[in-house]
Amino acid sequence: MIVTIDGVAASGKSSVASGVARALHVPYLSSGLLYRAATWAALQHGLPLDTPEAEGPLLDLLHAQTQAGTPLDLRPLPEGNQVWQAGRDISEALHTAEVDAHVSAAAVLPGLREWVNAQLRALTPPFLAEGRDMGSTVFPHADHKFYLHASARVRAERRVKERAQDVDSVEAALKLRDERDVRQSAPAPDAIHIDTGSGTLPEIIAQVLAHLPAPS
Ligand code: C5P
């Protein structure tokens, strides 16, 4: 079984996805973390990301890391996804403001999208895949698809609680990311839409689970 959960930035995707995956007893895969990891690797090596020419050097870097036996390695653990490289857990470095600011530019590079998609498709179901285009592009034949959405204001208010920033600037940054991500974020036509703008996390998880068969 494959379940996909897509949605806009800060819509609660990863919290909902991990709760649903735990209830179903399947691993969840965060595709965003792979985009973040590639962005982090590029920043570490001083590679620019904001031009179409960025693609070649970035793919060369990812390929060279694989050849050297030190690939970016997504580990879908029950307590959350981690990315390891060269024997080191780099997950914490993937949620910095610097990675946030560059990841959408990297994510429009078609070669990087193919690289991420190939990593995900190499995994054996059952699993729950979370991201932007899991139901529309990567796993169009998934058994169950969900799309989470909420207004930019509600999402900004939630982020502010997590990170102690002011709501107007967080809302503006989220809207900018929405605009940059719009191309890959179109919902699959057969996705079930869930509004995460109100309701607690357990209520939203229950709403998703109500559409899914009980775990065996
Ligand atoms: O999910 P998260 O916010 O961590 O994703 C980070 C970024 O990765 C998104 O803003 C988007 O640019 C990109 N992304 C994507 N396609 C996906 C998952 C994430 O383009 N399936």
List the helices and strands and how they pair.
Elements: E1 2-7, H1 13-24, E2 28-30, H2 31-44, H3 55-67, E3 73-77, E4 80-85, E5 88-89, H4 97-107, H5 110-121, E6 127-131, H6 134-138, E7 144-149, H7 152-163, H8 167-181, E8 192-195, H9 201-209
Helix pairs in contact: 1-9, 2-4, 2-5, 3-5, 7-8
Order of helices and strands: EHEHHEEEHHEHEHHEH
| Order of the strands making up the biggest sheet | 2-6-1-7-8
CATH superfamily caption of the largest domain: P-loop containing nucleotide triphosphate hydrolases
By DSSP (H or I, 4+ residues per run), the number of helices equals: 9
Report the mean per-residue pLDDT as an integer. 93
What is the class of the largest domain in the CATH system? Alpha Beta
CA(first)-CA(last) distance: 12 Å
Cofactors and ligands present? cytidine-5'-monophosphate
Rg, Å, rounded:
17 Å
Low-confidence stretches: none
What structural class do helix, strand and pairing data support?
A: alpha/beta
What's the short story on this structure?
The relative contact order is 0.22.
